[in-house]
Amino acid sequence: MRMLHTSDWHLGRSFHRVNLLDAQRAFLDHLVRTARDRSVDAVLVAGDVYDRAVPPLAAVELFDEALHRLAALGVPTVMISGNHDSARRLGVGAGLIERAGIHLRTDPAACGTPVVLADGHGDVALYGLPYLEPALVKDALGAPAAGHAAVLSAAMDKVRADLAARPAGTRSVVLAHAFVTGGAASDSERDITVGGVAAVPPEIFDGVDYAALGHLHGCQTINERVRYSGSPLAYSFSEAAHRKTMWLVDLDGDGTVTAERVDCPVPRPLARLRGRLEEILEDPALDRHEDSWAEVTLTDPVRPQDPMARLARRFPHVLSLVFEPDGAPEDALASYAQRLRGRSDRQITEDFVAHVRGGHGPDERERAVLTEALDAVRLDRAGREEAGR
Q1: What does residue 49 show for φ and ψ, rounded to 5 degrees?
Q2: CDD domains this protein is in (predicted)?
Q3: Which pTM value belongs to this model?
């Protein structure tokens, strides 16, 4: 069986205020062509279809158009909700849409109920595990604790129990939206660490032939059976070095997995430039970046006059300007921002406690209180997004 694994479309998202709807439409055109031209048997979308719980109308229309085109091809599509999606909104009409071969899996309670497809070697059971917010799904899944590893393990127990009851030789695929140990993050993923340690071990997916993951925006192989497709477009300059692709996965009759990367269209390359303004404006080696979306970090000891306007004359698509003067005294605010970069909410709060106590961090009881407070804030934000406020 041949599957096309993708994720993290983030329909409706912009890039430094640049509207990406046309680029997202070009990607979906490419996805449909690939499904047709490469004889794909199933499309797998591992979450974060939209960028927010209440997406703009143009994004919803683009999604609707893509589903109609996939249904017209007769290519079954299995899709889960991610942490950016509203599971309830994305799942509206799932029962009706399923008749057209579009299988939306947004209900955690249905983790053990697969979409069953068949090829010349027999059945393939595809299980959709939507993003599992630990505090919300712990009881429904019967997890022993409200942590990411605990709830995902409970969901996989349901998968393995269902698979064990199926005929011998049934192959299996899991779609999941999670942060798996060994994966490399970027600046554009929303933090999911509240509720305990976010990363879950890849061994959680033992017992299935392939795990199609979403959440991390870089295409990466955790092991031969556990892979991230990454996002089809770059959503931050931290992704400048990413090669944006989908996985074309072949699952043989004995469960052997082979995978090929299929490149996605690039609307405009990204460039991260650093140096003094005059050097950047005059360096001929930078000619290749003149048509790129650019982030420029200026190191001039004194802030130049009208730097953005001057840069834009050579680099008309410059989007971000940062100042880090050479030899300047340390800027406490800038230094603090740099220290926070890449750290979770939980790490930040624990570091703050240690700072005000002269290096003594919170004990286990205090960590539990901090986690409870952060969970409450997170769930309140999720509720507000669901309500469309």
Answers
A1: -65, -50
A2: MPP_Mre11_N
A3: 0.86
Nearest alpha-carbon partner for 321 in 353, 301, 293, 345:
293
Per the CB < 8 A criterion, the answer to whether 140 and 109 are in contact is yes
For the chain, what are the domain ranges?
Answer: 2-263, 270-328, 337-387
pLDDT 10s per residue in the chain (389 long)? 999 999 999 999 999 999 999 999 999 999 999 999 999 999 999 999 999 999 999 999 999 999 999 999 999 999 999 999 999 999 999 999 999 999 999 999 999 999 999 999 999 999 999 999 998 999 999 999 889 999 999 999 999 999 999 999 999 999 999 999 999 988 888 877 644 457 899 999 999 999 999 999 999 999 999 999 999 999 999 999 999 999 999 999 999 999 999 999 999 999 999 999 999 999 999 999 999 999 999 999 999 999 999 999 999 999 999 999 987 655 555 555 556 665 677 778 888 887 666 677 888 888 878 877 877 776 666 666 566 54
Using CA atoms, how far apart are residues 381 and 386, in angstroms rounded to an integer? 9
In 3D space, the residue among 182, 232, 244, 194 whose CA is nearest the CA of residue 373 turns out to be 194
The total number of residues shown for the chain amounts to 389
Task: Identify the residue whose tokens are 């986690």.
Answer: 371
244, two tokens: 């944006």
CATH number of 2-263: 3.60.21.10
